[in-house]
Amino acid sequence: MPPNFCGRALLSGVLLAFFCPASVAQTTSPDFVSARNSVLRTVLDNNPDLQEAHHQTVAAETRRDQVAIPDPRLTWSTAPLSYFDSDVPIGQRIELAQPFPFPGSLAPTRDRMDALTEAADADTDSLALHHAARAARQVDRIARVDTTRRLLEEHRGLLEELLQSSLARYEAGTAAAQDPLQVEIELAHVAHELVVLDAEKRVAMAELQGLAGGTLPNELPTFSAVPSPSLVGESEAPHPDILSADARMRASEAAVQSARRSALPDLAVMTSYASMWRNPAHRWMAGVSVELPLHWRARRAEVEEARAESAAAVSALTASETWLTANEAVAKARFDEAMHVVALYGDTVVPTARKRVEVVRSTFESTSGSFELLVRTERALRDAEIQSIAARTEAWSRLAELQVARGQMPGFELEGTP
Questions:
Q1: Is residue 16 part of a domain?
Q2: Where is pLDDT greater, at 384 or 294?
Q3: What is the pLDDT of residue 413?
C-alpha cells in the first residue's frame, strides 16, 4: 500500500470523527422545559416592573372603599366682644352639618373604581406575559450560545489534531505547505466565533438579570429540544389586553353616569345651638341645605367630556381586538416558518452536508481529492449545524410570541400554568 495512501487514510479517520460529531437531541425534552420554566418563574417572582404593577393593583383595590359620603362638619363660633361686656352672657354657636350626595350618585363612582381595578389587574397579567416572553428569548439565546460553543470547542479540538497531522504529513513530504496554513485559518475563525459567542452570552445574561431583578438561578437550561406544534393550544380565556380594554370601557361608561349625577344638587342636614338668643326655644335650630347647580355649562361640558372618553374607550377595545387578531396570525405564521426551518435543517441540510463530507472524504482517500476542498466541506457542515441550533432557538422564541399573542403564559408547556 503506498505511503501517501496510508497517510491519507489516517488523516481521513481523524476527519471522519471531525465531520460527524454527536447530534443534538431533536425532540422536546421535559428536562429542558423544566429548567427553562424555572428561570421564567424566577423572572416572574422578582421582576421590579411586575412588583410595581402588583402594588398599583393593590392600591386600585382600595379606591372603591374611598367612595363614601362626606364626613360631618362641626362648626363652633363665638362673639368676641361678649367676653368684655359684663352685661351680656358670652355668645357662642355650635353647628353640626352632614352633607349627602344626591341619592344614587355614589354607585357609578364605585362601579368605575371596580372597573379600573379589573383593568389594573389585567394590565399586570399582560405585563407578565411580555416579560416572560422577553425572558424566554434571552434564556433560549443563552442556551443557543452554550450549545454552539460546545460544538465549536469540539471542532477546535479536532482541528488542532488535524493541524498536527497535516504538519507531520508536510514534514514527510506527503502534503502541500498550504494544508497546515488552511487549518490554522480555520482555527482563527473558530477562535473569533467563540469570542463573539462569549460577548453575546454576557449581553443576554445582563438583560436576563435585569428582567429578574438581579436574581438568577445557578444553572441555566441546556439547549437540547425542539418545540412541538402540539404545545400550541387554543386560548381558553380572553387576552389580558382585551380584559383591560373592556374594563376601561366599562369604567368610562360609569364615568358618564357619574358626570350626569354630579349635575344633580347635593343635600345637607344641619343642626345648631346658639346661646345668644334670649328665648331658649330659639337657641336650637335644625334645617337642610341644597346645592344650586347654576354653572350648567361646566356641568354639561363635564358630561360631554365623559361621553367622548367613553367613545374613545370603545374604539380602544375594537383596536385591541383587531390588533390582537392580527398579531396572533403573524405569530402563528412565524412559528410555522420557524418549525419549517427546523425540519429543513434537521431532515435535509445537515444530513446532506454530512453526506457531502463522506463523498469528499472518499475522494480524498483515493489520492485524487483536494485537502482544501475537504476543509471547506467541513466548514459548510459546521455552519449548517450552527444554523440548525439557531433554528431551534428561533422556534422556541416564536412559540413564546405565539403564546403571548393568544394570552397564554410563555413556558410551562409540560407543567401547566404557574
A1: yes
A2: 384
A3: 52
Q: What would the grid cell of residue 163 be?
A: 493541524
**Residues 372/183, Cβ–Cβ less than 8 Å:** no
Residue for cell digits 506527503? 174
Q: What's at 50, amino acid-wise?
A: L
Nearest-5° angle of CA 73, CA 79, CA 80? 115
Cell numbers linked to 404:
403571548
Q: Residues in the chain, how many?
A: 418
pLDDT of residue 36: 82
Per-residue pLDDT at 218 = 61
Judge whether 395 and 338 are in contact, CB under 8 Å: yes
Alpha helices in 48-177 (DSSP H): 48-62, 106-171
Q: How far is the C-alpha of 357 from the C-alpha of 370, rounded, in Å?
A: 12
CA dihedral 119, 240, 217, 201 (to 10 degrees): -110
Q: What confidence tens digit (pLDDT) does each residue in 212-260 have?
A: 888 776 667 666 567 766 666 666 788 999 999 999 999 999 999 998 8
Grid cell digits, residue 231? 404545545
Q: 139 in a domain, yes or no?
A: yes
Which helix (H) or strand (E) element contains residue 307? helix 296-344
Closest of 57, 77, 49, 64 to residue 122, by C-alpha: 57
Question: How far is the C-alpha of 84 from the C-alpha of 86, rounded, in Å?
Answer: 6
Q: At 152, is the secondary structure helix, strand, or coil?
A: helix
Residue 322 has phi, psi (to 5 degrees) of -65, -45
What's the pLDDT at 367?
63
Q: What is the mean pLDDT of residues 331-335?
A: 93
Report how many domains make up the chain.
Answer: 1
In a domain, 386, yes or no: yes
Domain range holding 250? 3-405
Task: Tell how strand 73-79 and strand 267-274 pair up.
Answer: unpaired
379-397 mean pLDDT? 90
Side-chain half-sphere exposure of 174, counting CA atoms within 13 A: 18
Bridge partners of 93, per DSSP, are 77, 274
Q: What per-residue confidence (pLDDT) applies to 412?
A: 58
Q: What is the pLDDT of residues 173-217, one digit of tens each?
A: 666 777 778 778 888 988 999 999 999 999 998 998 899 888 776
* CATH number of domain containing 160: 1.20.1600.10
Residue 333 forms part of a structural domain: yes
